[in-house]
Amino acid sequence: MGMVGGGPDAFIGAVHRMAANLDGKIELVCGAFSRSADKSRQMSRQLALAPGRCYADYKQMFEQESWLPADQRMEFVSIVTPNHLHFEVAKLALEAGFHVLCDKPATLTLDEARQLAEIRQQSGCLYALTHTYTGYPMVVAARELVARGELGRIRKVVVEYHQGWLADTNASLGKQAAWRLDPAQAGVSCCMADIGVHAANLAEFICNDEIEQLSADLGASAGRVLDDDGVVMLRFAGGARGLLSASQIAVGEENDLRIRVYGEKASLDWSQQEPNSLRLMHANKPLEILRTATPQAAALGGITRTPPGHPEGYLEAFANLYRQFAEQVEARRKQGLPGKNTLPGIREALRGMAFIETVVAASASQQKWHPLPDLTQESNRGESA
């Protein structure tokens, strides 16, 4: 793989590199790691890349990599830049014939996401989005329980993602906060585009259902243009109602992502801070706690690397997405068809941007309920990838 972004001052780039390396299926061979050529070279030296494979910018990288023999050039690019660059980098990569694995959100606007779906279809390349939390084994198990009907008809979904790192509005919070709070780089939202969209994706993934309508109330702390807190009421296509709460000013919280799904027969409860356990609650029998790597979890499709009782977490969840994408790339190279899995793709890219823009519009409106746009036609363009 090649990488765009993830230079010396970046956070998420290092996480992506560790995750990509975990299973030994992917080799980082090139990169354009920073807008600064010096920083990009510094990162390249740290990663022990060949000097000729560190590029001044991503345009040069795509051009020169495409000149290399097929067994030497990168096969896909990992995009780990601020949001405003996601579309352009993905567009140029797809047009150059490279597969794309992109950090979320997919683009800066829904219109860009629609264009990206068209470009991906024309290119025939693979595209995937790193919605990390869909890679947790017990999240996959939760989805399977819902699909098997163990919970019965879903009635209510409660999903929360609370952080506290933006709570001090007087502090200098550094580069990571600066671009997320800047509309030119982050888009129309900070909190909802950063973590609220993860919560929405997790709810849709586990329930295998789509948010159809929403009502929102977002807030921005003193002096901030973009939201850092918000609550969203949800209505799902299947009839369930839901509540989504996301905050980056919840003092003391780290990365408290939790989802509860309530059905007619049973309910489930999963928290990222205790990721190896899935609570299954019944109306007329005792609470069950399913654990990662046990036979019960394996029967539900959980992907694990270690024996029971050995914690697996964030890096492994990320690595599961990279492993699935590597398998798709390998299948495409050998057989002409991608492997089948639950990796987020163009559909999730479109839905994520639709969620973000609808939430922001709903919060600014006096109207109570706002439908998400119909993305059926655009989503169908991603079916083969």
TrEMBL record:
GO molecular function: nucleotide binding
Keywords in alphabetical order: Signal
Chain segments annotated as coiled-coil in the UniProt record: none
InterPro entries according to UniProt: Gfo/Idh/MocA-like_OxRdtase_N, Gfo/Idh/MocA_oxidoreduct, GFO_IDH_MocA-like_dom, NAD(P)-bd_dom_sf
Presence of keyword Signal: yes
Domain GFO/IDH/MocA-like oxidoreductase: 140-268
A Pfam family: GFO_IDH_MocA
Domain Gfo/Idh/MocA-like oxidoreductase N-terminal: start-end pairs: 2-130
Keyword Signal part of the UniProt annotation: yes
Region feature (Disordered): 366-385
Alphabetized PANTHER family for the sequence: CONSERVED EXPRESSED OXIDOREDUCTASE (EUROFUNG) (PTHR43708), OXIDOREDUCTASE (PTHR43708:SF3)
Protein name: Gfo/Idh/MocA family oxidoreductase
